[in-house]
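Sorry to interrupt, but I need a hand with the structure work. Go ahead and set the record down below:
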Amino acid sequence: MMVLAVTLHNIPEGMAVGVMYAGFLAGNTQITAASALVLSLGIAIQNFPEGAIISMPLRAEGESKSRAFLGGVLSGVVEPIGAVLTLLGYTDEDFAGNQAANRMAKAAYLELDENIGKVSGDTLTWIDCVHLFYNLMRTNKKEFEGQEETTSTVYASVLDFSLTSDGEINPLEALESKLKGPYAVKDRSLGTILPFSASSASYYLDGEGATRDEVEDGAIVIYYNTTTKAVYGYSEDGNGGRGAYEGELEAVYYRSSDVMIPTSIVVSGREFALESSDMQFAFSVYGNMEIGDDIIIVWESSGSSSGEDADDTDGTVIDYID
């Protein structure tokens, strides 16, 4: 009875952690990452004596040390499941009868246990928790249960992640979506650009690891990610398939069949294709760029682009600084 009682009371504790993190990730200004972490740590600490309450009587009744310890651990296994299901939008009202068993059954139905390989009575390892979180990211939120998983229906959308064509998480797109920039580096110290300590950042130049000095000396523009404290610099060489170029806007070319949408530009003798609607608008008659302007463009190599106009140019414009 005591094992059952402690196990049942761990369900709302897991839900409490889930609600806190769900509120923080949803942008609730009254919930901070620190408060969510404090609650998680507080519940984790009080789980130690709760486990002892289970283990000690079992040991006193003659159970082996391992079985007594396992009993204490097992009583808390439902806690992470409760947290994960709460993040997906499930509540107590969704589980009639035996809450613990029905929650575990729901988790199995949603394939939250994929690659975990544990059954009731087993202890979740650190790797199991990693798999549990990844499975959470790929699972539809409650309101989309039973539908095909898409970027807009899975929990990953809450964290600005997307799915690849084969249903896996796309981490690179999420990182790029959080990039700030571009910022011109010329005659400026990175310390005056970055919102975090330049000494604690990791640096990359044209796709390869670099030092702060190498980025300051070689990069024309930088982007940065405040979450990872990573700084990405791009030089004129663009050895990683993406680079930057500074010069004068000399010409804007259009197709003869469509004189409203530009297809490429010439900057100080080099031609670059325009493929995205944002770049086409910026260099059109409706944009803010004019012939003779000094600009910095960020380009991507033609091999990274599928546009037909990119093949005859030095690259495709993906960003600019006027």
Observations:
- The chain is about 35% helix and 20% strand.
- The mean pLDDT is 77.
- The first strand starts at residue 162 and ends at 163.
- The radius of gyration is 27 Å.
